[in-house]
């Protein structure tokens, strides 16, 4: 095996196997707690949908979610919802999402979300799809995001199957 530069190892992807029962998904990668990740089912034959997660940064330095990739989508953006002329609009966050030291950012409907555009295949409810999160400081992380028909304002329900 040839020697690779240190950055190669730092950027090595960490493969994470999520607990398959219910969707109490939660992983800890170098002090980044990533939890409650899910993808909204597509509506009809729409080729885009959104995804959500919670990222808690327990480290003493700021972190930034820079970009995402996945085999399910040819184009993934990080969006926020903003009000422009009294209309709720989606805003493409070109600089990613800042997760300050010792704080938490919650992606949820009506707020931060992952925009999966140009889906490459229909998403199946309860299936899990690999999504790679790329951070500024930490290694990239692969999570398996389940497609769930969650009710936005209700308390969490557990799906057993
Ligand atoms: Cu969006």
Summarize the helix and strand pattern as letters. Answer: HEEEEEEEEEEEE
Radius of gyration: 16 Å
* Mean pLDDT over all positions: 85
Attached small molecules: copper (II) ion
Q: How does the helix and strand content classify structurally?
A: mainly beta
Give the beta-strand count.
Answer: 12
CATH top level class name:
Mainly Beta
Helix content: under 10%
Q: Name the CATH superfamily assignment.
A: PCu(A)C copper chaperone
Biggest sheet overview:
7 strands, antiparallel
The end-to-end span amounts to 44 Å
Structurally, the number of domains stands at: 1
Q: Which residues sit in consecutive blocks of at least 5 with pLDDT less than 50? A: 8-23, 153-161
Shape: globular
Beta percentage is over 45%
- Figure out the total of helices: 1
CATH architectural arrangement: Sandwich
CATH topology: Immunoglobulin-like
